[in-house]
Amino acid sequence: MNWLKPWIAYPPPNPDDSPTTADFMLDSDGFREVYNAATNFVPSMGPQYANPKAYRNNMLKYAFSLTQNDFEDPPAPPDWDWFEAGMAAVDKVFAALKQVAFNPNAEQPISVWQSWTGELPETPAPQPESDPMHAATGQSAAPPGTIL
User: Fold this and answer.
1) Which candidate, 9, 11, 3, places its Cα nearest to that of 27?
2) Which residues are within 8 A (CB) of 74 and not within 5 positions of it... i.e. 6 or more apart?
3) Across the strands, what pairs with 101?
4) Cα(55)–Cα(63) distance, rounded to whole angstroms?
5) Which of the 8 DSSP states describes residue 69?
6) What pTM did the predictor assign?
7) How sure is the predictor about 73, in pLDDT bands with cuts at 50, 70 and 90?
């Protein structure tokens, strides 16, 4: 796999590209999370990193909180769909985590997502040298002097 740098997998947000300040705030939070993904996405960093569900719930609470204020210029307009925006932010973070290597210098690197969730790729068990299984056909080799 061609691993991406965090700032490529999740480019820095541009306030001019965000429909609302709240969207920009969610995007900025996602960028910060992915930028330090290998150290952020471990359960010991806090309950919001325990698993993807906990992270999603935390981001949705954050999105909702952006609608609960009495600022003169609120970050979210009254018709802002905090749930849709929060889910979009979570999906963007999760997609980036699958493209960033957790251990890029390892012989078989895995993504931050795989490290965090335990969804490791399946690898075939190594065959011992003395295994009578024929690799090309999957059949056992006949012992010398026998007829099949």
Assistant:
1) 11
2) 67
3) 111
4) 12
5) -
6) 0.77
7) confident
Instruction: Note the pLDDT tens digit of each residue in 130-139.
Output: 555 555 555 5
The encoded tokens of residue 14 equal 């541009």
Tokens of 133: 């299984």
For 118, list phi and psi in degrees, rounded to 5. Answer: 80, 10
> Domain residue spans in the chain?
6-117
In the structure encoding, which two tokens stand for residue 36, read together? 């330090």
Q: How confident is the model at residue 123 (pLDDT cuts 50, 70, 90)?
A: low
How far apart are the C-alpha atoms of 71 and 58, rounded to whole Å?
22
Torsion of CA 75, 25, 23, 60, to 10 degrees: -100
Given a contact cutoff of 8 angstroms between Cβ atoms, the answer to whether 110 and 56 are in contact is no
The segment with the largest mean pLDDT, out of 59-73, 84-98, 120-134, is 84-98
